[in-house]
Specification:
single chain, globular, Bact_StressResp_Reg, STAS_dom_sf, STAS_dom
């Protein structure tokens, strides 16, 4: 089964989505990530979507769900690298991504999580 790697960097979990997301992969990521937040006692989740050209309503809701679950598990979520077309699509679909912080890049996202960064 295809999985998206989750890297641990101190108290941070880093997820870089470099493949086209489909519904099953998004559900697997949600499950894997919530398990890892608990196991690793993560305080932050950084999701890099810079390689995604498209996001549908299901994937948008999954990102929302991941952030909500992370919050319940005492971890903040920052979404980084959103392409303009993805942002436009999310707005057109009416998805506001409540509770999801966004940053232009990984460095800024790490700063938002209080974990350094360089720019």
């Amino acid at each position: 089964m295809e999985r998206i790697p989750i890297l641990k960097m101190g108290k941070l979990l880093l997820v870089t989505i470099q493949v086209d997301m489909h519904d099953r992969l998004a559900m697997t990521l949600q499950d894997d990530l919530t398990t890892r937040i608990v196991k690793d006692r993560a305080k932050g989740v950084l999701i890099d979507i810079s390689a995604l050209d498209l996001v549908d309503s299901f994937i948008g809701r999954m990102i929302n769900n991941i952030a909500a679950m992370a919050k319940i598990l005492d971890a903040d979520t920052v979404l980084v690298g959103m392409q303009p077309a993805v942002a436009i699509t999310l707005v057109e679909l009416g998805l506001t991504l409540e509770g999801v912080k966004t940053a232009l890049n990984v460095d800024r996202g790490m700063k938002m999580l209080g974990l350094g960064g360089m720019s």
